[in-house]
Design brief:
Helix content: 25-40%
CATH superfamily of the largest domain: ANL, N-terminal domain
CATH class of the largest domain: Alpha Beta
Radius of gyration: 22 Å
Shape: globular
Number of strands: 26
CATH architecture of the largest domain: 3-Layer(aba) Sandwich
Structural class: alpha/beta
Strand order of the largest sheet: 6-7-5-3-4-8-9-19
Distance between the termini: 51 Å
Number of helices: 13
Number of domains: 3
CATH topology of the largest domain: Rossmann fold
């Protein structure tokens, strides 16, 4: 079954032009003139109008694609070329100039570099095309690529639009990269609802021109991951928000309770909605939601399951922890490691996702996540949830990470925070129940992936090896 294309409505807009469905169709035709059904496109995402149009056009053309953030390109380029052997690279003129690529096929929409010239064939669509491959660098280990179908993306769009009431008046902006599932979800839901997705030439929230564009474009919906809202609080940037803002949304990891309270207070004073959400790339982005402005007493929860998705556990008891397992049309096929797997796509997940996240559910069906299966340690015979400890300590210092080698509890605090180590050890002892001799604290920069996730394995290696 082919669901209506998510890019049949909406506009992508910059200060230099507007691009709607006619442009999306024209872009897909440009690609289909070059590609075969079994081609693979690598799109380098730099948050520009060109890389965004390349993405939309490639999905409409029903061609498999890998979406890679420019920040990760140099680190992953050789591995991706070796394993996936893409036929084309699509991106902006700016990206190709920086990389020294020439001999490009140019259009007013995007630029193309041809890797492999193959004989043109007629299009015959298989069941799972197109697959959008997104990287996911969980808390440890090498990056994996998740295979999302158009049906996955459409199903998640429809669910999100129901609870966010996304419509033709929705205006979003490109502060999140589309190569990150949350950023892609913002683009997809906005266009699918017939809304407008705006491109700022300076998409960093740390730049004054970004906030000027927020006001210029009259943005209604702003989305951020925890690190974005940490910076907003630290730099007091909420007052820079456009008066047109109607909704703030947060996903991409646990946001500290202190920052949630900070955002909630501002939103309540301004009559703005604040949504706290939970999701995974493997589920096309979002799985739960909480309108915190409507239910401030549920702070700390990730809310209820989104429409058309179900928890599959049987006999879940209130206040008893269990692994979150979801079932829905938004669940990806699985992971892909090379071109051969991509050319012979198989649905491994079959619509069911075991998240690895541990949670309990209250009598209002609100979910409270307590940790991950892989984020537990056993020290002196005591089983510890590293996530619970980390979340508690983040109420003291917002930017820190907790790891363990099952011998000691290791805490890395951002070097910019002035820390009273003696007092902090006492606080950690109170939270963890461990003797202070089992607690080690270091000062440095908490490493994060391009989508803002803490790289716990790197912390263990670099600071506590």
């Amino acid at each position: 079954m082919i669901i209506n294309n998510i890019y049949d409505k909406g506009k992508i807009i910059s200060k230099t032009g507007e691009f709607g469905v006619e442009s999306f169709i024209r872009g897909s035709n440009i690609i289909k003139e070059i590609c075969n059904t079994n081609s693979l496109i690598l799109i380098i995402d730099d948050k520009s109008i060109q890389s965004t149009l390349a993405l939309v056009s490639s999905v409409r053309a029903r061609i498999n694609l890998i979406l890679l953030d420019i920040a990760n390109f140099e680190r992953q380029y050789k591995e991706i070329i070796d394993k996936f052997k893409p036929d084309l690279i699509l991106s902006s003129q700016n990206v190709f100039s920086k990389l020294g690529f020439d001999d490009l096929i140019k259009s007013d929409l995007f630029n193309i570099f041809i890797f492999n010239k193959s004989q043109k064939k007629s299009f015959q669509y298989c069941q799972y095309l197109p697959l959008v491959l997104l990287g996911t660098s969980g808390t440890s280990g090498p990056q994996k690529f998740v295979g999302l179908t158009q049906n996955n993306l459409s199903a998640n769009c429809n669910s999100i639009k129901k609870y966010l009431s996304t419509n033709k008046n929705t205006k979003c902006i490109n502060n999140l990269p589309c190569s990150y599932s949350y950023g892609l979800s913002v683009l997809n839901t906005t266009l699918s609802a017939g809304g407008q997705y705006f491109i700022s030439e300076e998409p960093s929230i740390l730049r004054k021109s970004f906030w000027e564009d927020m006001n210029y474009f009259r943005i209604t919906d702003f989305s951020g991951v925890p690190s974005v809202y940490q910076d907003i609080q630290k730099l007091n940037l909420l007052e820079s928000m456009s008066s047109s803002i109607k909704r703030l949304t947060q996903a991409g990891g646990k946001l500290s309770i202190n920052i949630q309270k900070y955002l909630l207070n501002w939103c309540q004073n301004k009559t703005i909605e604040l949504f706290i959400m939970y999701g995974q790339t493997e589920a096309s982005a979002r799985l739960t939601y909480l309108n915190l402005t409507s239910e401030p007493h549920k702070i700390g929860s990730v809310g209820r399951v989104i429409p058309d998705v179900k928890l599959v556990q049987n006999n879940v008891n209130l206040a008893r922890e269990f692994e979150l397992i979801f079932k829905g049309d938004n669940v990806s096929l699985g992971y892909f490691q090379d071109r051969n797997q991509l050319d012979n796509a198989v649905d491994i997940n079959k619509g069911i996702l075991q998240t690895g996240d541990i949670a309990y559910i209250d009598d209002d069906d609100c979910i409270f996540i307590t940790g991950r299966n892989s984020r537990f340690a056993k020290i002196d015979g005591k089983r510890l949830s590293l996530d619970q400890i980390e979340n508690s300590l983040k109420e003291i210092y917002a930017d820190l990470a907790v790891v363990s080698n099952d011998q000691i509890l290791c805490i890395l605090i951002n070097q910019e925070d002035n820390c009273d180590y003696k007092d902090f050890k006492k606080q950690t002892k109170k939270v963890s129940g461990l003797h202070q001799s089992k607690i080690k604290i270091s000062n440095g920069i908490v490493p994060r992936s391009s989508n803002g996730k803490i790289q716990y394995q790197k912390i263990l290696q670099d600071y506590f090896s």
